[in-house]
Amino acid sequence: MKRERLLKHQCGMQASLMAANGGWKPGVLARLAGGDRATFTELVEAHDTDMARLCYVICGDVELARDAVQNAWHRLWRQPPRLRDESRLRSWLLSVAANEARQALRRRRRGSQLERLAAVSADAGRTVEPEVLDRVALASSLSRLTPHERELLALRYLLELSSADIAQHLGISPEGVRSRLHRLIERLRKELDR
Amino acid sequence: MMTDRPTDFELRLAAGLRTYADQSGLMRRPEAAVAEVLARSRPQPRRWVLPVAAATLVVALVAAVAGIQLLNSAASRPSTTTVNGREYRVAIVRSLEVPSTALTQYGDVRSDDDHLFAENAVAYAIDGIDPEVALIVPTRPGAGDDAGSYGNWILLERGAVILQLCPYFDPNSEFTPPECLEGSP
């Protein structure tokens, strides 16, 4: 029953993403270049949350994540990309935001919230639902991954992109995505699924 | 979608990531994000104006100081004088030393300024320098001001000639024009 609920949740999420992704009206980039605020606002409404969650998983810090997303929006507004396929704008936004988050992480060399979360008492963050991984344990495992690995996990399991979409996003082959994910999952399973 | 049939662990991982990323400070109203971007994109006060103005002021000050030095030393221009019907500006070049082998008599100096020139002074052309651009005249013996002697020669010029005269300035003299010092462009 709980598994069905999770799947239903994921399907609903995917549907909303598809709507956001497939709902492009032609000429969105041209309108952006012309300073169309309504178009810009629609894009923010559609993608801001996903970008923020992706950035948060990468850098583990709310403030850095928000700044990274804001920088990505600013870049889009100031200089919209030239994309042959406008439906790839979502992928472009995620890439820019993720890149900003990684850069912000490099700039800020102090411990991220990932590490702080890992350090707190396990009881404080333990979830009550057994089908959800323990939040503190997950944070601890995430903190031991590279920013690129965290990005890969977020794209797949948080934003639910397909291997092909992730491959486009990261500039690697779908097989490469599957291979990396497989290794990551096995590693996390050993750490978390006890 | 994740895979055709996500494993139980993958489903738990996805749920865990959603919980982990569900931070209250992370979500915000889209209008706030838009407003922030638009505010950042507004034309900012020209922050470069102050540094540029300061730099310009510094350059002007340096130029003024250099000019004053030049006036005081190498090329002050108190008056004009006439040689062979052409009018030349008169410049004091205290540290100029030209060997007689490089000089050719060019013409008589017509000037009422007996403070600078001896009576019946003669102007000389310098080898390699157009006499219509520059000549030199022996300084009246003892002529000088608070900065010291005017040197041996007074320069008469009708164009920019200092760089051509550099070989004849004493590089160790404090009165040598800055343009002629080593390291000058």
Q: What integer value in Å does the Rg of chain A equal? A: 18 Å
Query: Which spans of chain A of ≥5 residues are poorly predicted at pLDDT below 50?
Result: 1-22, 118-128
Strand order of the largest sheet of chain B: 4-3-1-2-8-5
Task: Note the overall shape of chain A.
Answer: globular
User: What is the oligomer described by this structure?
Assistant: heterodimer
Estimate the strand proportion of chain B.
15-25%
- Specify the biggest β-sheet of chain B: 6 strands, antiparallel
Instruction: Report the end-to-end length of chain A measured between terminal Cα atoms.
Output: 22 Å
Q: If helices are DSSP runs of H or I spanning 4 or more residues, what is the number of helices of chain B?
A: 4
Structural class of chain A: mainly alpha
Helical content class of chain B: 25-40%
Mean pLDDT of chain B, to the nearest integer, reads: 80
Shape of chain B: rod-shaped
Helix percent band of chain A: over 70%
How many β-strand stretches of chain A?
0
Give helix and strand order of chain A, one letter per element, not per position: HHHHHHHHHHH
**Chain pair forming the biggest interface:** A-B, 48 and 31 residues
Q: Counting H and I runs of at least 4 residues, what is the number of helices of chain A?
A: 11
Note the beta-strand portion of chain A.
under 5%
Number of strands of chain B: 8
